[in-house]
Structures are given as structure tokens and as C-alpha cells.
Amino acid sequence: MSALLRLDGLEAGYGDMTAIRGVSLEVRQGEIVALIGSNGAGKTTTLRAICGLLPLRRGTVELDGRRISGLRSAAVVAGGIAHVPEGRQLFPTMTVLENLELGARSTESRRRRGETLERVFALFPLLAERRGQLAGTLSGGEQQMTAIGRALMARPRLLMLDEPSLGLAPVTVSSIFANLAAINRDGVTILLVEQNVLRALRLSHRAYVLENGTIALEGASQRLLVDEGIKRAYFGR
Amino acid sequence: MDPTLVLQGVLSGLLFGGVYSLMAVGLTLIFGVMRVVNFAHGDMMVWGMYLALLLSTRAGLDPYLAFVACAAALFALGLAVQRGLVDRIVDAPHEMQILLMLGVALVLENLALVAFGPEPARVRSALSTATVWLGPVFVDVARLVTFAVAVVLTLALYLFLFRTDVGRTVRAAADNTYGALVIGTDVRRVYAVAFGVGAACVGAAGALVSPILPFQPATGLSLSVASFNIVIIGGMGSLLGAFIGGLLVSVAESLGAVFLKPSLKELFSFSLLIVILLFRPAGLFGKRL
Ligand SMILES: Nc1ncnc2c1ncn2[C@@H]1O[C@H](COP(=O)(O)OP(=O)(O)OP(=O)(O)O)[C@@H](O)[C@H]1O
Ligand SMILES: [Mg+2]
């Protein structure tokens, strides 16, 4: 299996502060890869560095062997990476339908907008019911679905999600994780940032553990699930 | 007080208000998308007026046709100002933005002074002298046409923002700039479009008002102040607020001229501002504060 996304020695930060240093990781075509770590470890920074929302100080990002580091976010999205950001970042005074349609930006995704929209509604039937409602008035779970749907409208090859479970009830998290599995079965590769380590490891094939801005551990999720260090650090034992 | 006079004041204020609305809608669009206050707004409007004057005297074009060209020219000016200057300070502190925009205002006003001199000017239109009687009150046909075209242009802007993909993208960037960036919007391009369209609105407003309002380079300042007044009354960033606010302020000014004297007309519109802010600190349709 070839790498769809490859990070090599990423370094990025804010002002004088370095948030991530020497981050290298790889996501292969068809995989679900989890990126876990505690508060402030640098998970969000890593995702923002990948999609051109934060300038890189060092290192390269490759998508399908093509270097995308240094490109602006518009070019990265057009290249096939869609991002469901921390806090969802919807357009609160616009309708669900408008939020979704705005996700289709490239010429190709705009041309196939109707068709993709039907797939998104099939995945999240609730969004079809709520299509005329303003996004700011949705519940947290519905907002998360809208954010994921909006990202899918770009017809990405790689979907990156930043803590989709944040602030949601356990049943809602379960249904969203089931949706992620379905999206992956449809052929979309996923890079998932989570603090809900147990769920993330159960869903993913492989995982990386980020600590203080560097990769501390990596491996098959099945193996990390039984790793003593992980158990102690994240499952409170 | 003669009720006919009051009715006359309300009507002529309302008709003049269409231009105020269009001008304020342009300002609120620029502010809503970029969070930058265009202190050069009134001076851009004055340039719209002088362009209408030039097209009338040199090419014999009636301002009620020339407004299209004026809007296009101001669109280009807005685009240039955004790309060349504003783009560098979008994320800068407010005091830096204010200084830059005041600088643009000064440059535009003084360029007009150099080019056209300080004397008041007025553009002639074929409709200038026509009036019609509506029951007990009369209306200038020019005011009627100015109002109608301004309202149609405001509606066109509304359709652009709510019914086209580019317009929706502009609204998205106004709603959540970071969110727009995340989904791959070229936000710089959206800013350029918003500034250009905002300037085009005020350019068209300038041309449309040029047959009924005498102007000179210094008029820009009072128009800017009127625009801010309207946008604050309507609620910063609210299109509907700018539209309604434009009509309200214009009627208030018109009544001020009837009850007091023309030079005190602003007394009424600023009193309106104070009263509205007392009861609705975010303006009539403002949500944020
Ligand atoms: N905009 C910012 N300005 C300055 N420092 C920041 C900014 N964003 C993040 N940081 C800092 O960078 C470091 C990494 O933050 P980051 O948001 O990437 O962590 P995270 O792993 O996503 O954490 P969380 O799980 O809490 O979301 C932290 O120390 C944080 O304080
Ligand atoms: Mg984070």
C-alpha cells in the first residue's frame, strides 16, 4: 500500500513558541489513522499545518507523492484534502443546505454537487430534514454532522477530523463514529484527531501518539489498545 | 404646523432615502465581510457624482444612465484600494485600519479638489424639472426615479448575495472567516469582491443623487458620517438594517429641515441614533455586540 499522505519532519508554532517539532507520519490509501494525545500536545496544530492554515517552519507534506506544503488552503482542498476543524466552524446564520453546498468549491466538486449532496443526505438523513434550518440553531451533534457533510461535499480523498466527539453525548458519538466507518468503506481515507482514545483506537487501523509536539509512539491500533503505557496514560489505570 | 408640509417632508425624505440605503448597504457589506470601516465611503460617493458630471458634460450622458458606468468605475477603484492597501491591514489593529482609511479619504477628497475645484456642482438630467402631483403633495420625478433605481439596485445586491454561489461565499466569509478559509475559500478574492461591490453601490448612489443634491469635494465627509449613522442605527453588518436605516435617517433629516431649518437637519438624524441606541444598543437589526 502506498502512502496517500506523508508528513516528514514538520515543525510549526505560534510566535516564538514551537508547538510541533519533527512530526513525521504516514496515512495509506484506504486507512483510518488516529492521531491521539492530551490537551496541548499539538494535534490541531498538525492538522492546520497539513492544510496550509499555518505556515511550516520546517518539513514537507506530500499528498500522493506530490508536495503540497507551502500551498494555500484553497489549493490543498482542491488537491483532495478536506478538513473538519475543531469547533466545527460552520456558517451560523446560513442554512444547513447552504453550509453543505459551500463545501463544494472546486470546479469538479461543483459540477457533481447534486449527486454528492444526495450521498451526504443518505449518510445523515437528519440533515435532509433540517436543510432549511440555520446552522447556528442546530444541536451539537447535528452541527458535527453538518461539518462532516460540508467536508464531504468537496469529494476529498483524505478526510481529516479534529475531535469530532468533543462535547457530544455518548450515543451521538457512537453514531458519528459509525458514519466515519461508513465513509471509509466508501473509499475515503481518514486521519482522525481524538482525545477519546478508546473509541479512536477501536475505529482506526493504525495510530500515532503525540506528546509535547513530537510523535512518542506509533503502531497498529489493536496493539496500542493493550499497550500498558497507553492504558496508564489515557484509560486512567 | 401644516400637515401637508409634514407629509411633503416625509415623502421627499423617503424618496431621498433610497440613495442613503444603497450607500449604507455598501458600507455594511464591506464592514460585515472584512471588519474594516471604510472611512473613504463618502469620498468614493463624491467621485461617483463627479464621474456622472464628467459623463454628462463631456458625453451628454444622463446620470440616470451613467450610473452604470459610475458603478463599474467605482468597482474598479474599490478593487484597487482593497488589493493595494486594505489587504495589508485586514488583520491589523483597528487604529491602524482607521488611519489608513482616513488617509484614503483625504487623498480622494483632495484629488477631487485638484480636478474639479471647490465650487458646488450639480448634474443636469432631463428629469430635473419634471414634477407630478400625488393628491395634496408634489414629487420631483427625479427623486422618484432615483428612489426606484436605488431600491432596484439594493434588491439586485440582495439577489447576488443570497442566490448566487459567489454571493453565498461572500456571506460565508462574513459569517465565519476562518470557516471559509478551512473549506478552501480564496478569502483574499472574496475581500476584493466585497470591497469592489461595496464601492460600486456607493458609486451608483453618487451618480443617482447627483441631479438632486448639489455637491463639492468636501461633501464626502458629511456623507461618510451619514453612512456611519445609518449603519449603526441599522446594526453593524446587517443589510436589512442598512436599508431600513437609510430610509429612517433620510426621513428624519427631511423632517428636521421642515421643523427647524435645513442646516439643522442632522439634529434629527443624530437624535434618532441616540434614541435607538438607548433601546437597542446593537442597532435595529444588529446581533453582535
Ligand atoms: N493560536 C495560538 N496561539 C498561540 N499558541 C497556540 C495557538 N494555538 C495553539 N497554541 C499552543 O500550541 C500548543 C499546541 O496546541 P494545539 O491546539 O495544537 O493542541 P491540541 O493537541 O490540539 O490540544 P487540544 O486537545 O486541547 O485541542 C499548545 O501549547 C497551545 O497552547
Ligand atoms: Mg486541538
Any overview of this molecule?
The complex is a heterodimer of chains A (237) and B (289). Chain A has 2 domains: 3-80 and 156-235, 3-Layer(aba) Sandwich (Rossmann fold), CATH 3.40.50.300; 89-154, no CATH class. Chain A is built from 11 helices and 10 strands. Chain A has helices at residues 43-50, 73-79, 96-102, 107-111, 113-123, 125-129, 140-152, 170-185, 197-203, 221-225, 228-234; strands at residues 3-14, 17-28, 32-36, 58-63, 66-67, 81-84, 158-162, 189-194, 206-211, 214-220. Chain A has a 6-stranded mixed beta sheet with strand order 6-7-8-3-9-10, with helices on both faces. Chain A has a 4-stranded antiparallel beta sheet with strand order 2-1-4-5, covered by helices on one side. The radius of gyration of chain A is 17 Å and the shape is globular. The termini of chain A are far apart. Chain B has a single domain, classed as ABC transporter involved in vitamin B12 uptake, BtuC (Orthogonal Bundle). Chain B has 11 helices and 2 strands; from the N terminus they run ααααββααααααα. Chain B has helices spanning 3-34, 41-59, 63-89, 94-116, 141-163, 165-175, 177-182, 187-209, 219-234, 239-259, 265-279, and strands at residues 131-134, 137-140. In chain B, β1 (131-134) and β2 (137-140) form a beta hairpin. Chain B is globular, with a radius of gyration of 18 Å. The termini of chain B are far apart. The mean pLDDT of chain B is 93. The A-B interface holds A 51, 53, 72-78, 82-83, 85, 89-94, 98, 101-103, 105-106, 110, 150-151, 154 and B 165, 168-169, 171-172, 175-176, 178-186, 287. The complex binds adenosine-5'-triphosphate and magnesium ion. Magnesium ion binds at residues 43-44, 86, 162 of chain A.
Summary keywords:
heterodimer, A: 237 residues, alpha/beta, Rossmann fold, 2 domains, six-stranded mixed beta sheet, four-stranded antiparallel beta sheet, B: 289 residues, mainly alpha, ABC transporter involved in vitamin B12 uptake, BtuC, two-stranded antiparallel sheet, globular, binds adenosine-5'-triphosphate, binds magnesium ion
